[in-house]
Amino acid sequence: MTHAPENLPIDAIALAPEDNVANVLHALEAGQVARVRRGDDVREITVTQPIPFGHKLALESIALGATAIKYGTAIGRMTRAVAQGEHVHIHNLTSARAAKVQG
Amino acid sequence: MITFLGYHRPDGRVGIRNRLLILSVGGLTGPACRRIAAGLLNAACVVLPYEAGLVGEDKAAHDRAALGMAAHPNVGAALLIGDNPQVLEHLAAGLRKTGQRHAVLTLDDCLNDVFLLQEKAQRLGAEMLREISRDRRAPAPLSALTVGLECGRSDPSSGLVANPLLGRVADHLVDIGAVALLGETTEWLGAEHLLAARARSPETAAAITGAVAAREQMAVAAGLDLLGRNPTPTNIASGLSTIEEKSLGSTAKSGSRPIEGVLGYAETPATPGLWVMDAPAYAPESLTGFVAAGAQLMLFTTGVGNSYVSLLAPTIKVSANPQSCTRLQGQIDFAADRAFLGQVPPEALTEALLAEMAAVANGGLTWGEILGEGDEVVSRFGAAL
């Protein structure tokens, strides 16, 4: 992740500085360098998988069983490890809350 | 201070519309009520399809909803039609306390002749319409509003931009002494600890977490997998992965102010401020719960689009999804896509949405009103006798 100039359009957004995923504002291709605003920071991340409009991008590596954080709060745990730049969705992320209900 | 021109009611509330309500209390007179309303200028028809045999919470919720709608500040007069004179008299007694103009017509009054019912109701309704059309709007502060906060067919733009926008408006409403209502209990799941932390009292905090737990138990008892139900397939396709993610985005509509208390379905809040209603998340039931609680106006966010609106409370559709804002120009009343695209700071839209609310409160029509999309649907809790 590298710091990037502030005045260019951004490709993905995370509202809280502690978030480890960000939502993309338009569809991104593998290999593309995405400008990501996290909190007040803007950084660049290389996307490694295609990410559909509105879906989530991993801002850092997240281990199997670790927590995905959005809005500064847990939104679930990883069912597979992901690397920075990968697509985060139901294929690698599950609800921690609803899983407990069925427990 | 933002003001609007509204209809000042005898009970102190202020309406933003002045509809004649044709209320069918029970389903036997429903089809006749729809024909009666169709023949009267801009009359609103609500059919409560259930009546005889309602027990317990169903009976209580229907009674609250019927009175809440008939006495609603957006209703200038109510014509109550049904098959049970006792039920209608009970409702009329409630209306007399509020000072609401009303008339009652039963099937018995019409010798069980639906032609006669239709003719009598048409005449009565016409007279009532003529009378309420003489009412005039007068200035009122925005604090006279009760505003229902809803989302439907959400996507990530809802949680990132549209719902936080509603949250800032909700904070403003609370600060000026208005009422804001958050419902959709299953969409507190995963965010209930944050809501409970904002509760005015420990009892309210316990009621919030208890309401979520009760709905989880309801799902488990029904053999349902909450994961498979919510987020919905539409939500998942749009990029929402878990109920926590959806709930955190959904509850952002409530802003940041303290939560005064937990209302039962269709219950009216006792004081101004932010209240939460323990209610089903499905918009038709949820919005009617807010209407019964006195909401004159709804703010309803959507991601991919959702045309449903309340019949009695004008519903402002808000979206931050650029595709929806472009594709659904005849549905989205307030486009927040510029904030999603980073072209304007999200905070810059708060004043604009408050101005749109004032414009609609003044009588400006929403797309849903123009298209006649509105309906009212009262929740059911169990079986009838």
| Residues in β-strands, percent of chain A | 35-45%
Biggest sheet character of chain B = 7 strands, parallel
Give unreliable regions of chain A as ranges: none
Q: Could you name the CATH class of chain A?
A: Mainly Beta
* Secondary structure tally, helices of chain A: 1
| CATH fold descriptor of chain A | Archaeosine Trna-guanine Transglycosylase, Chain: A, domain 4
Beta-strand fraction estimate of chain B: 15-25%
Structural class of chain B: alpha/beta
Largest protein-protein interface = A-B, 31 and 33 residues
Write the CATH architecture name of chain A.
Answer: Roll
Multimerization state: heterodimer
Q: Your description of this structure?
A:
The complex is a heterodimer of chains A (103) and B (385). Helices cover 7% and strands 37% of the residues of chain A. By secondary structure, chain A is mostly beta strands. Chain A has a single domain (2-102), classed as Roll (Archaeosine Trna-guanine Transglycosylase, Chain: A, domain 4), CATH 2.30.130.110. A seven-stranded mixed sheet of chain A has the order 1-5-4-2-3-6-9, with no helix packed on it. Chain B is α/β, with parallel strands linked by helices and 385 residues long. Chain B is globular. Chain B is built from 15 helices and 14 strands. Chain A binds chain B through residues 9-10, 13, 15, 23, 25, 37, 52-56, 68, 70-71, 73-76, 88-90, 93-99, 101-102, and chain B through 155-157, 159-160, 164, 189-191, 194, 216, 219-220, 225-227, 236, 238-239, 241-245, 248-249, 252, 303, 321, 323, 340-342.
Architecture blueprint of SSEs:
The complex is a heterodimer of chains A (103) and B (385).
Chain A: E1 2-3, E2 12-14, E3 21-24, E4 33-38, E5 41-46, E6 56-58, E7 67-70, E8 73-78, E9 87-88, E10 93-94, H1 96-102
Parallel strand pairs in A: 2-4
Antiparallel strand pairs in A: 1-5, 2-3, 3-6, 4-5, 6-9, 7-8, 8-10
Chain B: E1 3-8, E2 14-15, E3 19-25, H1 30-38, E4 44-48, H2 56-70, E5 75-82, H3 85-98, E6 101-106, H4 114-132, E7 138-141, E8 146-152, H5 156-176, E9 179-182, H6 192-197, H7 202-221, H8 226-229, H9 233-237, H10 243-251, E10 259-263, E11 273-277, H11 283-292, E12 297-302, E13 315-319, H12 322-327, E14 334-335, H13 337-340, H14 348-361, H15 367-371
Parallel strand pairs in B: 3-4, 3-5, 5-6, 8-9, 8-12, 9-11, 10-11, 12-13, 13-14
Antiparallel strand pairs in B: 1-2, 1-7
